[in-house]
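Name: Metal-dependent hydrolase
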Amino acid sequence: MSSIAAPTPSDLDIRPRDRRFGREHATPRLWHGGRVEATAIYNALSTTFPRGEAFFVESVRAFRDGAPPRLAEEIKAFTTQEAIHSREHDAFNRRAADSGYDLSKLERQVEYRLSVTKSKPPIVTLAATMALEHFTAILAHELLADPRHLAGADRETADLWRWHAVEEIEHKGVAYDTWLHATRHWTRRKRWEVKAKVMFYVTRNFLVDRTAGALELMRQDGVTGLKAWARLLAYLWVRPGMFRKIAGAWFKFFLPGFHPWNEDDRHLLTAYDAEAPSSESSAKKVRSAV
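Structure predicted for Metal-dependent hydrolase:
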C-alpha cells in the first residue's frame, strides 16, 4: 500500500452559502454585455450543472461510509453546496429558456455523457468526478482572479457565477481526497494511470461538448459558420482566454504529488466574503419577508 498525503488545509471551512439569484427580474437574453459568444459559453456551462452536480454528489457519497470522520463531514458539506448549485443553475437555465433559448439539445448531450459514465464501476465514476472537479476549480480560480471574465455582465448573473466559483474552490479537495481514500490500497502507478486516462477522456468531452453547445446557442442568435467559430475561439483562447489561462493548472494534475490544495487560493474566498455579506444579508431578509 502506498503512502497518501492529502494537503487539504486543516482549518478549511466548507460553508454552504444559501443564496438565490435572479428571482426578481428577468435575465437579459444576451446577459454577458450583449456578447453572443460570451453569453453562449456560460449558458452552455450552466446547462451541465443541474444534472452534472447531482452526479458528482452521487459519485462521492458512494464512498462516504468508512471514510475518516473529517472527510465524511467534508463530503456532507460538499453535498449541500452542490445541491444548492444545482438549484440555482436550474433556475438560471429556466430563465435562459424563457428568454428564447432552446437548451434541449445541450441537455440531451449531458444526459448521454452521464449515462455512459454511470454504466461504469463506482470507482470510475468517482475518478470522473475527481477530474471534473479539478476542471471546475481551475475555471473558478481564473474567473475570480481576473475580473475581465465577467466584465460588462448583468450584475445578478455575474454574482451567481462568482458565488458558484467561490464554493467550487472551497470544496475542490473533497472528490480528490475521497479518491485517495478509495484507492488507498492501490500503487501510485496504478492510481496515476487511471486518473490520467480519465482526465484525458474528460478533457476531450468537456472541450468538444462545451464548444458544440456554445456554437448551437450562437446559431440560435443568428451567428453561424466561420464567424461563430472565430468569435468563440478568440473569446476562449485569446481574450480574455479562459481556456488558455487554465492550461498550466490543468497540466499540474498529471505531476507527481499533485493535490488540488497544492494551490492555496483561499485569498480569493476571503476577498469574496469581504464583499458578499451585505448581499447575503439582503437576500436572507427578502426570503424571511416572503
